[in-house]
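REQUEST FORM: STRUCTURE PREDICTION
Request ID: SP-0412
Submitted by: Lab K.M.
Chain count: 1
Length (residues): 375
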Amino acid sequence: MAALSYTDAVNEALERLRGVGFEHGPRFVNHAPMAAEALAHMGYTDEVPGWVDRNLRTRTYHDVPELRWAIDPADRAGWQAALGDFARVGDWTALFERELSEDEWTEVLARWWPRLLPGMSGVLTHGVIRTAHAVRAVAAAGPDNHRQLSELAQGLGYWAARYAGHGAPVDDSDSGELAADPDPDPDPDPDAGADANTGAGALGDGRRDDGRNRDRDRDRVHDHGEGDGHDDGDGDGHGRDPAARALDELVAEYSGIYATVAQRHPIPLIHSVTGPAAVRLVIEYLPPAQRWPSYRVARSLSRTMLDWFQATPRPQAPLPEAPDVDEVFANAVQIGDEHAIKLAEVAVRHEAIAPDPRHAAAAQIANQGLGRLYL
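STATUS: Completed
RESULT:
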């Protein structure tokens, strides 16, 4: 029997997850749509149904709060007052479903991204992460994309309902856009993390090259360019917008930190990597004026997480040994944890864009820590 296509696997997962609550337990996030999309993107489409089965069997998700009253996007004071109110998550989702049915999804994204960006820290960036996975699914779906658009509404709605102020303030202009960053070439502060070359020779060569993992991302980069038609012409000569390049460096930097810092638990600091990686996934679909502010908020939040979780970077710490990123992802699938899967997918994605040993090292450390919890 032929393997499921990416779109079929995502459609099936989203259909089965329709109506499932946003959280379980004490504000634990529903990662199922994100992890299912990551598995499908990596070519593990036949693994998606079983993974969703296990997730639904082992999680008791809370019911979605009932609708209260409609949010009027023209009433700035009204929608601002509803930010961060989880009791309004149904109202927020309904708003985005209406807007996505009336306008192009890229227009809705550009309109609301700068309004939600300052609240990216809510539930450890899971609002922006869920939104980013939905954006990738919508972009790949073609004209029959109603399930993916519904998931995008869920991601944006969750982000708005769990909004927690951090970074740049909400803009008061009619457009809702954040001002462009005046610094055209910020220093990503590479000294804050492990050196890019530290431990490079220690990486293994256990590649699992069956044509579906890193090659898929590389083909996309080479065939379409990182701007995917939205680049403003200020790229680095390799198709990357400068803000996208800065986000790539930020992801590598915090991957190195994650791989070398002492941690009490393997999960929380993962979001210092997956948060900016989510912004990076969306950046090509944003207007150029929104890209640098997005990088700035992502960088500020990743730095803040080090304080939240009492993690002290060790700039010269050697990287731990790690297999090839494809093997690291296969190990994450075997573990089955959603955080392991999502971080390993980030490692594969960024290794295809800007190779760096810190990507695999971070995912390997997460696999080891999470494997002790699950295996």
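NOTES: DSSP finds 15 helices and two strands in the chain.
Reviewed by: T.R.
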